[in-house]
Amino acid sequence: MKLRILLLLGSACAALVAFALASPRVIAADTVDPATDAKAFQNFFFQKFPGVKHEDFVNGPYSMNEDMKRQWLEKEEFPPYEFALDAGKEMFATPFKNGKTYADCFPNGGIGIRQNYPYFDSKEGKVVTLELALNRCREANGEAPYSYVKDEMASLTAYMAFTSRGKKMDIKIPDDPRAREAFENGKRYFYTRRGQLNFSCASCHVQSPGERIRAEVLAPALGILNAMPIYRSEWSGMGTISRRFITCNSQTRAVPLEPQADEYRDVEYFLSYVANGLPISGPGARP
Amino acid sequence: MTAYPRKSALLLALVALAGLAAHPAWAQSTVAEGQKLAFDRGKGNCLTCHVIKGGDLPGTIGPELKDLKAKYPDRSELAAILFDETKRNPQTMMPPFGRNRILTEQEIDAIVDFLQTL
Q1: Based on the structure, what is the number of domains in chain B?
Q2: How far is A204 from chain B (nearest CA, A)?
Q3: Which of A72, A252, B65, B88 shows its CA 20 to 30 Å from the CA of A182?
Q4: What is this structure's pTM?
């Protein structure tokens, strides 16, 4: 009797495994454990693009297209984000009216810590991004918050990314069911189709990286936040993570969320966690 | 009793209309209209994903659109692809133009006329 049940269970498991193996791998991550998810996610891209060095995935569209990469490397001699970077450095060093500085709000004085953002804050029970932490720092010191999509925020995050270049993304999911839920929620947001055109984030950045959508080359979802913030010629200026998420939503005729809405914080948590181990490369420059 | 002749008059009118639709001059104008709709960024915007003869800056997400009459002799197949390609391929990137009311039935019809000339 017992043996029969065991056998039955065994074959049920085998069938499940066979099913999982047979189902098409369009969705790069479909398991429930975040660490396994991240591994499957990374392997999906490593296998799809065997010619791309792993650490190169952080360079967005340039990792997918040799011609574009050459033009970009030439431009890096006089990077278009330099102005923002210098402004960010100065802002970071300038005291608030109360005499404190940004350095007082962050571990290690805010230097070389970009790879630890976003993090899950167990007190608040939510994901805290670097942009959010910067505005909270301002407000805690009696200063008005900056716009999430405009120049000052991009300058500050550009400087903080720059001091962290080469450090490997290192996002933790603490042993807290709410952290796990935030990760799952971000993943769900990323794979859900929305808007009149029926695209998910994954339609463009998992299914079609390297393809041209009109004249633009789509960046792979792996390491897609490591280069943020970015200078875009098309914007003639810098853009933050908030700006990029909103632009992607509205360009596809989906209703964008408010900057730093819970779903955006969660999707940033998801995308950053699955990029663990890949170097910070920001600030970036894009055509 | 009086309804009968009226009905047949209506039928006759419909037959005449159908004849008009097959008329080459009419067909040509729907082809031009279809091309306009297919290239218009606010409508079909098909060039975002497909290479199409006569269009600039095409994307590469979908296959080049050509020889479609040979591949899909029945125009209702093309109309179905435009109406909702997720029916054939649930993972497709192609937007469900009819189902999500990006294009009306007449607009899809005109684009199909255009596609059949490729």
Answers
A1: 1
A2: 8
A3: A252
A4: 0.86
